[in-house]
Design a protein that fits this description.
Number of helices: 5
Helix content: 10-25%
Distance between the termini: 41 Å
Shape: globular
């Protein structure tokens, strides 16, 4: 077993995987990464299985020292990242050596980044998942965000079957200067809202507030009239738009409670959940209502693209430059540029 040493933890770096979905029936939040496509791509880049645990970091990334050689990939939001003071690309598999220091600075575009390490983060699973739920002090690394001095267990990895770098839909990030479109499907209480309020939802403009975290994103802007019906506590889903008494939506995220009492007018289409999660405070949003069939088709298209990339990797179409180290290749590259 090898370790990552945390030099600086970033804003709130946690360990996340696909989440403890089955534990929701016991009342535990699912947790897991908020941008699933970016997480899957990070793992794919370093040869990991889809649900392998990664590091998730919002707005400001961590600084880490590698005890052993391995391979890494950064995906999600655009961060300026440096390996031993040299800027490195995102969405690409990179080899690191023992003693290397990775510094991930403030975000440049988007909100949440991911670091995958070959073999995955090796903390002990809790209820079938390594995901961190901070408010319950559950999973991850002692149930909390990472802190300076932490030693995070990883596998020693000196050989990787393939490298690749290719743009995909998973790299889509919100433009802070524009109003973006987020696709919705009707929620279980859609009919509780009259036609005027349904139109307000799809014709109005909303803005992500500073009250945005792994539990939920509060929006401000167009206000909806809350229906008079009383709603008993009911199961929640990721991406649900709850309408509280204020009339401004709350979008439930990965660490949401398993049940809730606010009516859900709509649910963000799964294909757009990662895109929405990457919104910073102040991002303007307009919603577009689509059918369940359209949402399923769009999600299938994204999955098929990632599935194809995975098959290409497994087939060995992207071969690493064996016999030459990263340091040597950088030196050769600099010589060729002279």
């Amino acid at each position: 077993m090898a370790f990552l040493q945390v030099i600086e933890p970033g804003l709130q770096t946690t360990i996340q995987d696909a989440g403890r979905i089955d534990a929701q029936r016991l009342g535990f939040p699912a947790s897991g990464s908020v941008d699933r496509a970016a997480t899957r791509l990070a793992n794919l880049l370093v040869g990991n299985a889809e649900g392998t645990a990664v590091l998730e970091f919002p707005l400001v990334g961590p600084t880490l020292e590698f005890e052993r050689s391995t391979f890494i990939a950064l995906t999600g939001a655009q961060f300026k990242a440096e390996l031993n003071h040299e800027v490195i690309p995102m969405y690409q598999c990179l080899q690191v050596q023992a003693g290397d220091i990775l510094k991930i600075g403030p975000v440049e575009k988007g909100r949440i980044g991911y670091l995958a390490v070959a073999g995955g983060i090796q903390t002990e699973p809790v209820l079938g998942s390594r995901s961190t739920t901070i408010r319950l002090q559950l999973g991850g690394f002692h149930g909390r965000a990472l802190a300076a001095g932490d030693l995070i267990p990883i596998k020693k990895q000196t050989v990787l079957t393939s490298f690749y770098h290719r743009q995909t839909q998973a790299e889509r990030l919100p433009n802070q200067e524009e109003t973006i479109k987020i696709r919705l499907i009707k929620g279980p209480q859609w009919q509780w809202f009259n036609h005027l309020n349904q139109q307000k939802l799809v014709q109005g403009t909303f803005k992500v507030t500073n009250q945005a975290d792994r539990m939920g994103y509060r929006l401000e802007g167009t206000k909806l009239q809350v229906p008079e019906q009383n709603l008993l506590s009911t199961a929640t889903v990721k991406g649900a738009l709850q309408i509280p008494q204020s009339g401004e939506p709350i979008v439930l995220m990965a660490d949401r409670q398993t049940t809730g009492g606010y009516p859900v007018i709509a649910v963000i289409a799964t294909v757009d959940l990662g895109y929405f999660a990457q919104c910073q405070a102040g991002q303007k949003i307009q919603f577009e209502l689509i059918t369940l069939e359209q949402a399923q088709q769009a999600l299938n298209e994204l999955r098929q693209e990632l599935d194809q990339l995975e098959q290409n990797v497994l087939a060995g179409k992207y071969r690493p430059p064996y016999g030459i180290s990263r340091v040597a290749s950088q030196r050769i590259s600099r010589l060729l540029k002279r």
